[in-house]
């Protein structure tokens, strides 16, 4: 099965990337996000050189991803605890009623 090639632009350079069929729009969206983050970092003057900009941007995006996963797990645990408390309260109410 042949994968389609999608042209993306990152900091003014064009790259042809293979991706699974049906995921072309997602790849383009990811490339646009990466490009905007890299442009923002470059404009800040905090990093010089394409390689350093790419690595710092990748680390920033990875940090954001891992932080959001941790936040989601924390919320999931809180939801379980609340559900358990509600179940317990409802069980006590039905016994009293």
Automatic annotation (TrEMBL):
Superkingdom, natural source: Bacteria
Keywords of the record: Cell cycle, Cell division, Coiled coil, Cytoplasm, Septation
InterPro entries, sorted: Cell_div_ZapA-like, Cell_div_ZapA-like_sf, Cell_div_ZapA_N
Pfam families on file: ZapA
Keyword Cell cycle: yes
One annotated Gene Ontology cellular component of this protein: cell septum
SUPFAM superfamilies tied to this protein: Cell division protein ZapA-like (SSF102829)
Localization (cell): Cytoplasm
One GO term (biological process): division septum assembly
Keyword Cell cycle on entry: yes
Main location: cytoplasm
Function in brief: Activator of cell division through the inhibition of FtsZ GTPase activity, therefore promoting FtsZ assembly into bundles of protofilaments necessary for the formation of the division Z ring. It is recruited early at mid-cell but it is not essential for cell division.
Quaternary organization: Homodimer. Interacts with FtsZ.
Family listed: Belongs to the ZapA family. Type 1 subfamily.
Protein name: Cell division protein ZapA
Native organism: Marinomonas aquimarina
